[in-house]
Design brief:
Organism: Chloroflexus aggregans (strain MD-66 / DSM 9485)
Number of strands: 11
GO molecular function: methyltransferase activity
CATH architecture of the largest domain: 3-Layer(aba) Sandwich
Keywords: Methyltransferase, Transferase
Radius of gyration: 18 Å
Protein name: Methyltransferase type 11
InterPro entries: Methyltransf_25, SAM-dependent_MTases_sf
Number of helices: 7
Structural class: alpha/beta
Distance between the termini: 40 Å
């Protein structure tokens, strides 16, 4: 089983109220046209609205369970012909070269690449797939030192919701190491069925955050030129207080 397979059941419910980045990606799709590549596409949260807008896309993810849900959602919307889904490791993916006009890694997914080697391998793979005028977008959270120092391993209830007739409580434990720029994350899902039986599922993973100029240097090492840095999905200038760190880059030819 893939590390992220247990999360697939809850992913859409966790993100059901988050649509902030969809207009952002629609606008970039309008600017660049298709075909479009999404790395770590999950259950298709961003793929579906872009496909519904008429764009042709390819989504890559390592989790079979995530991709299975994405296929079901695409079929339900009659969008199967618009999207190609590929089960692959983004560090080693082999896709057509000079093919995509836009590639993106949505909300924090790039942070699952926790070593410089993995980050560079992924960026190199993406660079090969982009056209000469192609665009790469990486969307990260903007690291706040005060928030990070509070991530000390305490158990917190993040949200509760109904799912398939069960009551779900999601607890989160985050322990961060500022020196290593690493967060050790645990998701705990407690499902309470109608008869009162509780089923617990736990998922543990590690994420690495990046700072603004660290990201720019990483992109440069991988053969990209930074075109813009935004602090929000509304294309606001990046500042210390920005909620997001969004890099827009192009292959250096």
């Amino acid at each position: 089983m893939n590390l992220y397979d247990p999360f697939a059941r809850y992913y859409d419910a966790d993100f059901r109220h988050f649509h902030d980045d969809i207009p952002f990606y629609r606008e970039w799709a309008r600017r660049t046209g298709d075909p479009i590549l999404e790395l770590m596409c999950g259950t298709g949260r961003v793929l579906l609205p872009l496909a519904a807008a008429g764009y042709r896309l390819t989504g890559v993810d390592l989790s079979p369970a995530m991709l299975a849900i994405a296929r079901e959602r695409l079929a339900a919307e009659g969008l199967t012909d618009q999207v190609t889904l590929i089960e692959a490791d983004v560090r080693q993916m082999v896709l057509p070269e000079n093919h995509f006009t836009l590639a993106f890694v949505a909300v924090n997914s790039f942070m699952h690449l926790t070593t410089i080697e993995d980050q560079l391998a992924t960026l190199a793979a993406v660079r090969r797939t982009l056209t000469r005028k192609g665009i790469l977008i990486i969307d990260l959270f903007n690291p706040d030192p005060l928030t990070i120092t509070r991530e000390d391993g305490r158990l917190q209830l993040e949200r509760s919701y109904e799912l398939d007739g069960c009551r779900v409580q999601k607890f989160v434990v985050i322990e961060s190491d500022p020196a290593e720029q690493i967060s050790h994350v645990t998701f705990i899902y407690d499902e309470t069925a109608g008869d009162g039986v509780v089923t617990r599922r736990t998922m543990q993973f590690t994420m690495r955050w990046l700072y603004r100029f660290e990201l720019e240097h990483l992109l440069a090492r991988a053969g990209f030129t930074l075109r813009a840095v935004y602090g929000s999905y509304d294309l606001e200038p990046y500042t210390t207080a920005s909620p997001r760190l969004i890099a827009v880059a192009a292959p250096r030819r």
